[in-house]
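Aim 2 progress. For LPXTG-motif cell wall-anchored protein, the working sequence is reproduced below.
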Amino acid sequence: MGTLRRRPILRALARPCAVLASLLGTAVLAAPAAADPIGPSVPVMGIKSVGDVVATRDTLSVEDVVLDIGFLGTQQIRFRFDLVNGTQQGDPINFLADQTDPACQTLGSAPATTVECAYTRQVVAGQVEQFSFQHRTSRPGPVGFPSVRMTVSVGELSMGQTLRPARVKPEADLVVTVAGPARGQVGEVAMFEWTLANVGLDPVWESAGLVKLTAPAGTEFPPLAQIAVPDDLTCNPRSATKTAISCWFLVVEPGAADARRVSWPLKIVSSRVGEGSVVAQLANMTGVQPEGDFADPTPGNNNAVVRVVVAPSGQPNPGDSVSPSPGDGQLANTGTNTFLVIGIGLVVVLLGAVLVAATRRRMAA
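Predicted structure tokens for this construct:
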């Protein structure tokens, strides 16, 4: 009886055990397949590291972008670079159309704020992919290069990172000269000409190109409202005094053709005068270089001396073509011999005395 009762129980357990064994066998067979290096890899991708990011006057360099890609086999890797000009002064930075890498092109009409690059690589297990970029850009403004958003995409996965380029200082070499002294008499307004040239490689923008004018002792500047200031020159009326004025140009492009020549007035208030100056600085209106942005390789030629020649009272200005007029108590020089005139006068006086004496003798006789 006991034996007959056990058989239905064993039969009842036989089918569930067979199903369980089948499932375990499938799992065991599937496990080696998942670990097989030939099979599909785990879909992961990441930016492992980024090297130097540097902006020069016409290039954005992004060096050694290292990617860790889990996709094996032939893969298309896409890069997108977006310029962020949020705090940029002056003209915004843009990517130019003629990029040096044929795999890169601007998005939309150039100049543009986005450039995209596409590469096809054979990804091998355990090997990283490395990229470097040289994007051509327009000239940066005075503050510096904007930040750059780099986005990397492989398949449906993408990852972004914000890059902040280190900027190579633009080189602007300012040169100031003054053409000759101002000439005039006390009480007159004399003119002198000063020139600001940029013989460097990069333009100077308004936030970094400052010109300070200092009047020589014994002279003063007329009120700023009475000075004919060129259209592209701006002067600070709040800080302007009779002896000091600060001005700046909107932009000073490099090259002799773009040199700025300005005629400036000086009122002579004393016969005793000293020397003034015209000084150019790569600094803003407060005299502070903004973030050390510009570099001047030869700052010694940024200063020129202003001199004044005062003509004597009653005399025309030195260098005038007219003859000097006689002063008080002076005889005009007409070209006649003075001694001859005096001699003739004495002879006339003597003859008059002789005639008077002869007349008296006749009357006495």
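The two ends are 216 Å apart (CA to CA). This observation will guide construct design in the next reporting period.
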